[in-house]
């Protein structure tokens, strides 16, 4: 029998609570749902007002994975959606996770949450910049941290402040709060930063995606600033054998990173970190911190 629970006045059917989703730790779907209920206050500001894309992994990371932007079949009428026209579907809409009930409904589908750098009320006008630092083996997060420190200084030279988070996979993301800026302009600036970083750190950085170029280097992926692209939302669980989270870290942790396992954050780590550090990404929501592109 599927348990029924009530969240903020909405009745939700939560299914398969004992199913193991992350085999490396035996983490169950029930534990996944408990995680999202616990960190709801942290993740919701990063989801709210942004059209959400889902990477679904209902049978765990070793099962079928599929990426969807359309509202899944059976989406309740009370889950808000927003128009996000696409060339292949001018009437397309996407889910908006505005509250805890919507978050728990989506989490029950077993998803990674992915969001664009803009809000539904201002499509293709970014309020943040993202740089995705992706290591090509044998490089690891250690090399990503070196590149992150370089980019932090470069951004600061332009009056911009970067905040790091783990990707939840192998690398790091740098998030930069911006005054509202057309995505096309943000994309061009981010690409310029990546090209400059490769020129200044040629043995460490590559700005092109081709895997043949990436061995032992860090790919500075600037492409996620395009209006049509999305990035793993802060605090989302990832479809990995370990229940890894894309979670904020301190610059002190980035500077001290000396081994590939240092910045692996799992779902049980996040609540204690929120108690210890608070919301490290809170400045992303402070208009006084938002910078202007040069």
From TrEMBL:
Residues 28-278 form the DNA ligase D polymerase domain. GO terms for molecular function: ligase activity. Keywords: Ligase. Pfam families: LigD_Prim-Pol (PF21686). It comes from the Bacteria. This is ATP-dependent DNA ligase. It comes from Streptomyces showdoensis. The lineage of its organism: Bacteria, Bacillati, Actinomycetota, Actinomycetes, Kitasatosporales.
């Amino acid at each position: 029998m599927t348990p029924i629970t009530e969240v903020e006045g909405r009745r939700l059917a939560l299914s398969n609570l004992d199913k193991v989703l992350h085999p490396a730790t035996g983490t169950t779907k029930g534990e996944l749902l408990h995680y999202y209920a616990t960190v709801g206050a942290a993740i919701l500001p990063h989801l709210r007002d942004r059209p959400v894309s889902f990477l679904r992994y209902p049978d765990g990371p070793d099962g079928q994975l599929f990426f969807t932007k359309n509202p899944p079949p059976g989406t309740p009428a009370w889950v808000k959606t927003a128009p996000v026209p696409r060339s292949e579907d001018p009437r397309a809409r996407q889910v908006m996770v505005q509250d805890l009930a919507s978050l728990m409904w989506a989490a029950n589908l077993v998803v990674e949450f992915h969001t664009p750098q803009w809000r539904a009320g201002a499509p293709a006008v970014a309020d943040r910049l993202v740089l995705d630092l992706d290591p090509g083996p044998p490089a690891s997060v250690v090399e990503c941290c070196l590149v992150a420190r370089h980019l932090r200084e470069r951004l600061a030279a332009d009056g911009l402040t970067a905040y790091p988070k783990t990707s939840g996979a192998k690398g790091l993301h740098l998030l930069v709060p911006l005054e509202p800026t057309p995505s096309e302009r943000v994309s061009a600036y981010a690409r310029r930063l990546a090209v400059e970083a490769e020129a200044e750190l040629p043995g460490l950085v590559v700005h092109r995606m081709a895997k043949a170029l990436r061995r032992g280097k860090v790919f500075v992926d600037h492409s996620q600033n395009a209006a049509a692209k999305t990035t793993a939302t802060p605090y989302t669980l990832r479809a990995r054998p370990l229940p890894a989270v894309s979670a904020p870290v301190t610059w002190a942790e980035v500077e001290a990173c000396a081994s590939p396992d240092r910045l692996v954050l799992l779902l049980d780590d996040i609540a204690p970190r929120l108690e210890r550090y608070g919301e490290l990404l809170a400045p992303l929501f402070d208009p006084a911190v938002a910078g202007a592109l040069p």
